[in-house]
Specification:
about 40 residues, mainly alpha, 1 helix, rod-shaped
Length: about 40
């Protein structure tokens, strides 16, 4: 039981860090897009 629980926790932690990385990339992409739009006007 304990090893399975630990494996599930580590899998959840990996998923959370992946989600955070994606969110960071999306934020950077949005900032880049806004910068391009501002340059066009």
């Amino acid at each position: 039981m304990a090893p399975a629980k630990n494996a599930w926790q580590s899998r959840t932690i990996r998923q959370n860090s992946t989600t955070n990385n994606i969110a960071t990339l999306n934020t950077a992409n949005m900032a880049e897009t806004f910068t391009k739009m501002a340059g066009m006007t």
